[in-house]
Specification:
Elements: H1 2-25, E1 28-29, H2 30-37, H3 41-53, E2 57-62, E3 72-77, E4 83-89, E5 93-100, E6 105-112, H4 118-136, E7 143-150, E8 153-154, E9 160-163, E10 172-173, E11 185-190, H5 191-200, H6 205-212, E12 228-232, E13 238-244, E14 250-253, H7 278-281, H8 283-290, H9 305-316, H10 320-343, E15 349-352, H11 359-370, H12 374-379, E16 384-386, H13 390-421
Helix pairs in contact: 1-3, 1-13, 5-13, 8-9, 8-10, 9-10, 10-11
C-alpha cells in the first residue's frame, strides 16, 4: 500500500514546491520555476499541466517587445481558485480582509470592538463575515480558510483563545464561528508569532536585506542566519521567536513573554498576577508609573494613545517621572530579553507595535536590561531594529500561514480527484 501511495506523495510534494515558488516570486516562466524549485524540466512540465487542468494555476502569454518570436509563457495562481478571510483582533477594533488565491487583497473593513459576552462577540464576528460575502458577492463554499489573530495565549491545536487582554481568562472558542454552508477551516494564531513568521519568511531576499541594512555590523556576535526575535510594544507586550537550525529545520513560537515574571510581588498586571513584564512595560504600566499611582491599582483594559503621547511629550521635555516611566519600561523589556538570549543564543531583535514611536525613550533602559545577560556582556548587544509597520507584518504572516495550509488542502483534493478519474 505504501509503495502505491509514494508516487502520489512525491507528486504532491513537488507540486507544493511549485506553488511555494509562485507565492514567493509571483509569475514565473517554466525555466524560472525549474531554477527556483530545482526540479527537472520534465517534472515541472508535468506538474504545471496537472495544476492547470485542476484550475489551481493559469498561464499567461506575453508577446516579445519586438513583436517577433514565440510569446513568453508564465504561470501564476488562478485567483478565483478560492479565497481566504483574515481577521485581526486588537484592543479596540476588529479588521476583516478578503484575499484571493493569488494573495491579492480584494476588500477590507474594520469595526469597533464592543465590550460584550464571548457569545455576543462571536455572533458579531459571524455577522461581519456574512457582510464580507455580501459585499463581494461570494458564495460561502468559495472561502477556503478563515485566519484569525489576537494577542494572548492560543491553544496549540485548536482555534481557541485561552487567555487574552480583551477577555482575560474567559476562553473564546472559534470552532463554531462559521454556520451552515461554510466549508472553510478556521485557524487562530498569536499576533506576534505572525510578525516573526513574516520577518523570517520574507517573500524575497530584498525584504530581509532592507531590514538589516541599517544595522551596525559590529554589534555583537552574528547569530545563525534566519534566527530572530520579534518584540511587540503597545497596550500588550508580545514576543515571537524564529529559530533556524543547522539541519535546515525551523521553529517559530510565541512564548508568554509579557506575563513572564519581572519582579516578585511587584506591580499588578492585567492578568491578575503581580510583577509581570507587561505590568512595567505596557501602556497602562507607563501611565501608572508616570502618575505615581499605587502599583496595586487595577490596570485599565485600554489606554488611549493620546494619553501616552502626552506622557512622552513630558518625558522629552525632561519631566522626571515621565522619563522614569519609560526607562522602567525599557528595563523590564531588556531584562526579559536578556533571559531569553541566555536560554537560546544571540539573535537580532526586531521591535514593532505602536510603542515603537517612543523607542528613543525606552532604548537606554532596554540596553541596560539586555546587558545583564552574560552572552551580551561577552559578545555585545544584539542588533536592534525598529520596524514600525506592525499591521503589515501581521497581515503578511497571516498570508504565509493561511496559504501554506490552503495549498496543501487544494493539492490533496486535486490528488483525490485524479485518483477517482483514473
Amino acid at each position: 500500500m505504501l509503495a502505491k501511495s509514494s508516487p502520489e506523495l512525491v507528486r504532491q510534494q513537488n507540486s507544493a514546491l511549485v506553488l511555494s515558488g509562485l507565492r514567493r516570486h509571483g509569475r514565473l516562466a517554466h525555466t524560472e520555476i525549474c531554477e527556483t524549485t530545482r526540479l527537472a524540466s520534465a517534472t515541472v512540465s508535468a506538474i504545471t499541466a496537472d495544476l492547470e487542468r485542476a484550475g489551481i494555476i493559469e498561464r499567461t502569454e506575453q508577446q516579445p517587445i519586438s513583436g517577433r518570436g514565440r510569446p513568453r509563457v508564465q504561470f501564476s495562481q488562478r485567483r478565483n481558485c478560492g479565497y481566504v478571510i483574515v481577521i485581526t483582533i486588537s484592543s479596540d477594533i476588529i479588521q476583516y480582509s478578503l484575499v484571493d488565491y493569488a494573495g491579492t487583497l480584494l476588500d477590507r473593513f474594520a469595526e469597533q470592538r464592543q465590550e460584550e459576552t464571548t457569545g455576543g462577540f462571536l455572533r458579531s464576528m459571524s455577522a461581519a463575515l456574512e457582510r464580507m460575502l455580501a459585499r463581494s458577492r461570494l458564495d460561502r463554499d468559495k472561502v477556503l480558510l478563515v485566519s484569525i489573530s489576537s494577542k494572548g495565549l492560543v491553544h496549540p491545536n485548536l482555534p481557541s483563545l485561552v487567555w487574552s487582554p480583551v477577555f482575560g481568562a474567559r476562553s473564546v472558542d472559534f470552532s463554531d464561528l462559521l454556520g451552515e454552508g461554510w466549508g472553510a477551516q478556521v485557524v487562530l494564531s498569536n499576533e506576534t508569532l505572525l510578525v516573526a513568521t513574516a520577518l523570517s519568511q520574507a517573500k524575497d531576499g530584498h525584504a530581509r536585506g532592507d531590514l538589516e541594512s541599517g544595522l551596525d555590523k559590529d554589534q555583537g556576535a552574528r547569530p545563525r542566519a534566519g534566527s530572530l526575535v520579534a518584540l511587540s510594544l503597545g497596550h500588550s507586550i508580545g514576543l515571537g521567536v524564529s529559530r533556524m537550525f543547522d539541519s535546515g529545520a525551523s521553529e517559530i513560537v510565541a512564548p508568554n513573554f509579557g506575563h513572564m515574571l519581572h519582579t516578585p510581588k511587584g506591580a499588578l498586571c492585567r492578568c491578575g498576577t503581580s510583577g509581570c513584564i507587561e505590568a512595567y512595560a505596557g501602556f497602562y504600566a507607563i501611565l501608572r508609573a508616570a502618575f505615581e499611582a499605587p502599583m496595586d491599582r487595577i490596570p485599565a483594559k485600554f489606554v488611549p494613545l493620546s494619553e501616552i503621547e502626552k506622557i512622552a511629550q513630558q518625558a522629552r521635555q525632561g519631566h522626571r517621572m515621565a522619563r522614569l516611566a519609560f526607562r522602567q519600561a525599557g528595563m523590564a523589556l531588556g531584562s526579559g530579553l536578556s533571559r531569553l538570549l541566555s536560554l537560546y543564543e544571540s539573535m537580532p531583535i526586531f521591535i514593532t507595535g505602536p510603542g515603537t514611536r517612543y523607542y528613543e525613550l525606552l532604548r537606554e533602559g532596554l540596553e541596560e536590561g539586555l546587558a545583564q545577560a552574560l552572552v551580551v556582556r561577552l559578545g555585545g548587544l544584539p542588533p536592534l531594529t525598529v520596524v514600525p509597520d506592525e499591521p503589515a507584518l501581521v497581515f503578511e504572516g497571516h498570508l504565509i500561514v493561511a496559504f501554506s495550509r490552503v495549498d496543501q488542502d487544494v493539492l490533496q483534493l486535486a490528488g483525490r480527484q485524479r485518483q477517482v478519474a483514473s
